[in-house]
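Collaborator request, handled under Task 6.
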Amino acid sequence: MNNPFGLQVHPEIKDAGASVRIECTPPEHLQGWADILHGGILSTLLDEAITYVGIGTFQQHAVTAQLEVRFRNPAPTGVKLYVLAERIKVSKRLVEAKAEVTLRDGTIIATGTGKVVPVSENFAPKVPTQ
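Structure tokens returned to the collaborator:
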């Protein structure tokens, strides 16, 4: 949140990381083609939501170890996007999650799956409060 160039998302973590919801309206300067959001930004939104599933699950900072993305439809810039991630599997050192980016009408823009691992306090800043 302190990064003025960041997406300024406020993840909503539910049920100790079982699910994470993010709403974001990406600005025009993040377009890849005219009025279409760059796929890297869509990947970042999926990554962010999946990582917060890990953070909520482990109750400490976590990072993405693996991310797979599938683009389904173009996303217009300047339109609110909805990201929902859900935990799939938990082990001692790994959380697997799935996520999707949709428009208000339910149109699926992109889907992703990822694996998240916890990191030590020395490596990352404090987990944000909910």
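The cover message to the collaborator said: "The mean pLDDT is 91. The chain has one helix and eight strands. Please let us know whether this matches your experimental observations."
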